[in-house]
């Protein structure tokens, strides 16, 4: 078994060898290295053909028309283009947007920028499950709301929002609906028409494609308009200028093709591995799953080991690559804003570990992880004053702490 | 983030983890920090009649640097007089462990912890003195 064991597939994934194999053929002098925008020779035509085949594969995974796919540098750019593009274009119609506090920073920080420009944004609190309540969302809508942005799958806790229900409501209220699907494409079924999604952000590197490429789905019927954020040669029907990176587009297309073909079987395998991990840990005292366990993608398990601090646990788990909701590594000492938004107390928010399982994870790796986590949590609890107090029956919420 | 070898050593093999009887009149207990900030340190010292710290134990909830700071401190205070222990500065701990700037607060917490433990011991001792000697 190779170590360290990679259990951070929600951060990024390795490129599937089948994807890499296709990509390199669009780079070298012997390959189709042409500029897809070159109309005057075969180098350009071949590159364009490859880009369009990739575009069709991306579109197919989400039930879209290839003409509705705009290539970007990744999901962050797609989020920026969707939010700023719509807010600016429809600014005369209304200047209010609605989103949720547990969105990715690419959405939240873009909303902050729009607020600086004079737009108004409502940030909804999620339920303790991590999901947004539809009635509360509807109550936040105003006549001047132009856009609702809610992610499909949360990056930290993996919960799946019912975006079909959101889409139907937003459509009925006459606003546009954007969803960040960076964590859901290839993991949860997406059909932009059935779900009434108007704009959808996609990333390649979360689903075994290369980093540096993503896409924004932009609905054509009824037509959604955007103000471009990147100006230049008028590529991507004027919505996003810049020479297309053929090999990156090809990589994303191939990754999405594979995902579409294998998603059902892969999800079953991932769910079995995730349950194996969960069942290996659940009988430990004071272990809490963060977010709804049922409405969740197969590969995600986010748990808090109460009375153990996340960063020290990660340090103890050096043989496995996981991430912590505890951001003690930053100067702010703030625990995960996502877990805080779920109403988790500080101890639990500081004690969380995100395990994300993927295509190359094996049962042996899961079993090793279970053994290691149990051993290290026990060791750290033996030296935790909070665990000692808990064992003595002290109610930690009643203690007067000397903060610093 | 990369940890120094000394932090790793104390983290892997923490010295003097444990607890002393907090009701023992010769034991001083200091607990500092807060779960909300991500670290809580409990430091206990046992002081003999000569005013020398003959034992020290700690328990820490926190990152590797916090654990290492408290572990190192228990090593340093053993065999020291209360006066000597009071004079330990957080900067000495930070220097010894090569803590990066974002982890300096861990050494500050350790300094606070020993000061709190000494204050607790001294408060106990003062209370004993003020009590009538012929209580029996």
UniProtKB/TrEMBL annotation, chain A:
Q: Which residues bind [2Fe-2S] cluster?
A: 328
PROSITE patterns for the chain: AA_TRANSFER_CLASS_5
Q: Which residues form the Aminotransferase class V domain?
A: 5-368
Q: Does the keyword Isomerase apply?
A: no
Pfam families cross-referenced by the UniProt entry: Aminotran_5
The keyword Electron transport appears for this protein? no
GO annotations under biological process?
[2Fe-2S] cluster assembly
Q: Matching InterPro entries, A to Z?
A: Aminotrans_V_dom, Aminotrans_V_PyrdxlP_BS, Cys_deSase_IscS, Cysteine_dSase, PyrdxlP-dep_Trfase, PyrdxlP-dep_Trfase_major, PyrdxlP-dep_Trfase_small
Q: Which UniProt keywords apply?
A: 2Fe-2S, Cytoplasm, Iron, Iron-sulfur, Metal-binding, Pyridoxal phosphate, Transferase
GO molecular function terms noted in the UniProt entry? 2 iron, 2 sulfur cluster binding; cysteine desulfurase activity; metal ion binding; pyridoxal phosphate binding
Q: Which family does it belong to?
A: Belongs to the class-V pyridoxal-phosphate-dependent aminotransferase family. NifS/IscS subfamily.
Q: Which organism is it from?
A: Candidatus Muproteobacteria bacterium RBG_16_65_34
Localization annotation: Cytoplasm
Post-translational modification N6-(pyridoxal phosphate)lysine, affected residues:
206
- Catalyzed chemical reaction(s): (sulfur carrier)-H + L-cysteine = (sulfur carrier)-SH + L-alanine
**Which protein are we looking at?**
Cysteine desulfurase IscS
Oligomeric and partner information: Homodimer. Forms a heterotetramer with IscU, interacts with other sulfur acceptors.
What is the taxonomic lineage of the source species?
Answer: Bacteria, Pseudomonadati, Pseudomonadota, Candidatus Muproteobacteria
Q: Where does pyridoxal 5'-phosphate bind?
A: 75-76, 155, 183, 203-205, 243
Automatic annotation (TrEMBL), chain B:
Write down any Gene Ontology CC term. Answer: cytoplasm
Q: Which GO terms describe its biological process?
A: iron-sulfur cluster assembly
- Annotated organism of origin: Candidatus Muproteobacteria bacterium RBG_16_65_34
> Where's the NIF system FeS cluster assembly NifU N-terminal domain?
2-126
Similarity-based family = Belongs to the NifU family.
* Top-level taxon in the UniProt lineage: Bacteria
Q: Which NCBIfam families match?
A: iscU
The protein's name: Iron-sulfur cluster assembly scaffold protein IscU
The protein's matches in CDD domains, at most eight in alphabetical order, are given as: IscU_like
As one GO molecular function, the record gives: iron ion binding
> According to its UniProt entry, what is the function of this protein?
A scaffold on which IscS assembles Fe-S clusters. It is likely that Fe-S cluster coordination is flexible as the role of this complex is to build and then hand off Fe-S clusters.
Task: Report the InterPro entries cross-referenced here.
Answer: ISCU, NIF_FeS_clus_asmbl_NifU_N
Which chain positions lie within coiled-coil regions?
A: none
